[in-house]
Every structure is written in structure tokens, then in C-alpha cells.
């Protein structure tokens, strides 16, 4: 009998992936919880400057590991807790106060990234970096320059969350399962974002076709306008009510982590560096993008109406201007 066989089998059957979450606040700790629930990684490491908070979050999460796929949770105010992570998700930084826009956080967040990223890259040089802290598109662009990482290796959560809000509203409007709605929000994760109606579909039916042939008024321009308005303003409403958004972003972030760690080549609207995307360059924003173990692969050239193209360009111009304002 070969004594080595069971141990070897054990080694190979365990997932050894490590997720590091930087910032154990509302978003970071909820994301860690969602990642544990879904068994996204074998080790979940939390890093935060607030030692008492990060240790408490890690302990609380650890007490629940009996009930989730096997995992280990560690938390520390020492950045080396992130060492050799496969994925690093950055959620550290100030959150919006009611009435503040995401862009209002730019100066503070960029300053924070200058402090956090160099030591992070030192301890986890091969990780895929997913930026969540707002304003996420500008932060992603600045972070690429601060870190010196290749554009495929560092990207932002972008409009994955906004697209899930859009899909939820469309599904609710027509009474179908949200999983059967395929629709993306593109551009800024913020006030200039735009729904890509031209490429949206419900099941196999193009959404604009549904608008023509479905129940009267199903998706006429005023309904589309109302839904788009609701998506843009969702975060403001939630922040007004409870001070932060955390559950949906935790799940959206986990979805991106899974796409990376499982090398899914899934199409997700993450925020990445554009280089001649329909003529748009030198800015990070969201378009439907293939995501896998090496991070960002191709950005899909989806069909765009003239209005959608103009909206995307407006987002790009705004985000570039904000980045320039801070010397990037
Ligand atoms: N991209 C997206 O879809 C979303 C982004 N956000 C953004 O995520 C960020 C975090 O939001 P919350 O978790 O609600 O804020 P929070 O205030 O609850 O947590 C932030 C955490 O960052 C920590 N932190 C601050 N400086 C740090 C440093 N130098 N190193 C490590 N940790 C540090 C704080 O101690 C705190 O625990 C905000 O910028 C918010 O706007 C929030 C929701 C969605
Ligand atoms: C806060 C934020 O960026 C969001 O919930 O969309």
C-alpha cells in the first residue's frame, strides 16, 4: 500500500488560493463574508490600519467557518498578512457622506493609494489587484501608475455592481428571473454612467425588440429613462438610509474574484485601462470585459448607439480630467 497517496490526494484536492482584502470596513468585511459563503478562496486575509477592528472582524468571521466551505480567516494591521495573495481587493478609504459624490473622495483616496500600494505590491507581487475604493475609475488609473503593475493585473470593480442594479430593475419590471437579463452599465462607476440598451437582452429577446413587441409601454423611452435614473441614484439612496452600501458590492466583488481564481473568462463590466476602444484611450472605465486568472483579457467591442457612444466619451472625458487634476 502506498502511504503517500492519501496525503498527496489531500494536498491536491485542497484549494490553496488566498484572497487579501485591504480595508475591513463595511465593504471589506461584507466582501470577505460573501467570499467565505461562496467558498471563493481557501484563505481570506483582512488588512486594516485599525488593529482592534480588523482582529475583531477576522475573529467573528472565523467563528462561522464551520458553516461554509473550508477556509481560514486571518486579520492584522500588519500588511504582511497579505503576503503571496492570489487576489488583493482594495476597499480601504473614506466612504461618501450623504450628498457627497464619489469624485469628492478622489484626493483623499489617491493619497491613500500612494501609501498602501507600494508595500502591498512588495508582499504580493503576483496578485491580481481589484480596486473598489471610490472614485474607483480614477483610483484604478492612478493606481496603475503608482504601482507600476501591467494593465491586465490591476483593474477596478467598475460597473459590475451598477449592472446588477440595472438587471434587477429590468427583471423586476418584466417579471423574469434576474439571471435571464443580460445588460450592462458602462462608463464611470458614478454619475455619468450609461446603460447599454442597444446590446441588452431578456432571455433571447433583444430588450429594444421587447420594447416594440412586448406589453404596451414595456420599455419605452420613459421607462428606460426612469430605470437609468434609478441605477445612478441607488447608492445615494442607500447611503442616505444606512450610511453605506455593502451587501451588493460584497457579492459583486466576490463574483469578480471567482472569475479570476477560477480562470472563468467571464464577461464582466470591470474598469480597466482603455487603449483605442472605439477611439477612447488613456482612461480607466467600464466596458464588458473578459476576466480570468491573468486578470483583464479583451474588452468587447459591443454594438453602441450614437447616444451610447457619446455617453461613454463623456464619461471618459470627465474621468481623464479628474485624473489630470491630481497629476495623473
Ligand atoms: N466601487 C464600488 O462599487 C463601491 C465602492 N465603495 C467604496 O469603498 C470604500 C470603503 O467603503 P466602506 O467600507 O463603507 O468604508 P468604511 O469607512 O466602513 O471602511 C474603510 C476602512 O478602510 C480602513 N483604512 C483606512 N485607511 C487605511 C489604510 N491606510 N490601510 C488599510 N485600511 C485603511 C479604515 O480603517 C476602515 O476600516 C469607499 O471609498 C466607498 O465609496 C463602496 C461601495 C461600492
Ligand atoms: C458607494 C458606491 O459606489 C455604490 O454603492 O455604488
Automatic annotation (TrEMBL):
Positions annotated to bind NAD(+): 23-28, 48, 53, 93-94, 115, 132-134, 157
Keyword tags: Allosteric enzyme, Cytoplasm, NAD, Oxidoreductase, Phosphoprotein
Enzyme Commission number, as recorded: 1.1.1.27
Record has tRNA processing as a keyword: no
Active site: 189
Chain residues that bind beta-D-fructose 1,6-bisphosphate: 167, 182
Top EC group: oxidoreductase
Main location: cytoplasm
Keyword Hydrolase: no
Residues in Lactate/malate dehydrogenase C-terminal domain copies: 159-322
Compartments, record wording: Cytoplasm
Record-linked Pfam families: Ldh_1_C, Ldh_1_N
Top-level taxon in the UniProt lineage: Bacteria
Catalytic activity: (S)-lactate + NAD(+) = pyruvate + NADH + H(+)
Residues noted as binding substrate in the record, renumbered to the chain: 96, 102, 134-137, 162-165, 245
GO BP of this protein: glycolytic process; lactate metabolic process
InterPro entries: L-lactate/malate_DH, L-lactate_DH, L-lactate_DH_AS, Lactate/malate_DH_C, Lactate/malate_DH_N, Lactate_DH/Glyco_Ohase_4_C, NAD(P)-bd_dom_sf
Pathway(s) served: Fermentation; pyruvate fermentation to lactate; (S)-lactate from pyruvate: step 1/1
Domain Lactate/malate dehydrogenase N-terminal: 17-156
Residue numbers carrying Phosphotyrosine: 236
Matching NCBIfam families: L-LDH-NAD
Record protein name field: L-lactate dehydrogenase
Species name: Flavimobilis marinus
Phylogenetic placement of the source organism: Bacteria, Bacillati, Actinomycetota, Actinomycetes, Micrococcales
Gene: ldh
Amino acid at each position: 500500500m502506498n502511504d503517500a497517496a492519501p496525503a498527496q490526494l489531500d494536498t491536491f484536492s485542497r484549494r490553496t488560493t488566498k484572497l487579501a482584502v485591504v480595508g475591513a470596513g463595511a465593504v471589506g468585511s461584507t466582501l470577505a463574508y460573501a467570499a467565505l459563503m461562496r467558498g471563493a478562496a481557501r484563505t481570506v486575509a483582512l488588512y486594516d490600519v485599525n488593529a482592534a477592528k480588523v482582529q475583531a472582524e477576522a475573529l467573528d468571521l472565523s467563528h462561522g467557518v464551520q458553516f461554509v466551505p473550508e477556509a481560514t480567516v486571518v486579520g492584522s494591521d500588519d500588511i504582511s498578512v497579505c503576503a503571496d495573495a492570489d487576489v488583493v481587493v482594495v476597499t480601504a478609504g473614506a466612504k461618501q457622506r450623504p450628498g457627497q459624490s464619489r469624485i469628492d473622495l478622489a484626493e483623499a483616496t489617491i493619497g491613500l493609494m500612494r501609501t498602501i500600494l507600494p508595500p502591498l505590491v512588495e508582499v504580493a507581487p503576483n496578485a491580481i489587484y481589484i480596486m473598489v475604493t471610490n472614485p474607483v475609475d480614477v483610483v484604478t488609473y492612478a493606481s496603475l501608475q503608482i504601482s507600476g503593475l501591467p494593465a491586465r493585473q490591476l483593474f477596478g470593480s467598475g460597473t459590475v455592481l451598477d449592472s446588477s442594479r440595472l438587471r434587477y430593475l429590468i427583471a423586476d419590471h418584466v417579471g423574469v428571473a434576474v439571471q435571464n437579463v443580460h445588460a450592462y452599465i458602462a462608463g464611470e462607476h458614478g454619475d455619468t454612467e450609461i446603460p447599454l440598451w442597444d446590446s441588452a437582452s431578456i432571455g433571447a429577446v433583444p430588450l429594444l425588440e421587447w420594447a416594440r413587441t412586448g406589453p404596451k409601454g414595456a420599455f419605452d423611452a420613459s421607462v428606460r429613462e426612469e430605470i437609468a435614473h434609478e441605477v445612478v441614484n441607488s447608492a445615494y439612496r442607500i447611503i442616505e438610509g444606512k450610511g453605506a452600501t455593502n451587501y451588493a458590492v460584497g457579492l459583486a466583488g466576490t463574483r469578480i474574484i471567482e472569475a479570476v481564481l477560477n480562470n472563468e473568462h467571464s464577461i464582466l463590466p470591470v474598469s480597466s485601462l482603455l487603449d483605442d476602444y472605439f477611439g477612447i484611450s488613456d482612461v480607466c472605465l467600464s466596458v464588458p470585459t473578459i476576466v480570468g486568472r491573468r486578470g483583464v483579457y479583451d474588452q468587447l467591442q459591443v454594438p453602441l448607439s450614437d447616444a451610447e457612444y457619446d455617453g461613454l466619451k463623456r464619461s471618459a472625458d470627465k474621468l481623464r480630467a479628474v485624473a489630470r487634476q491630481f497629476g495623473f
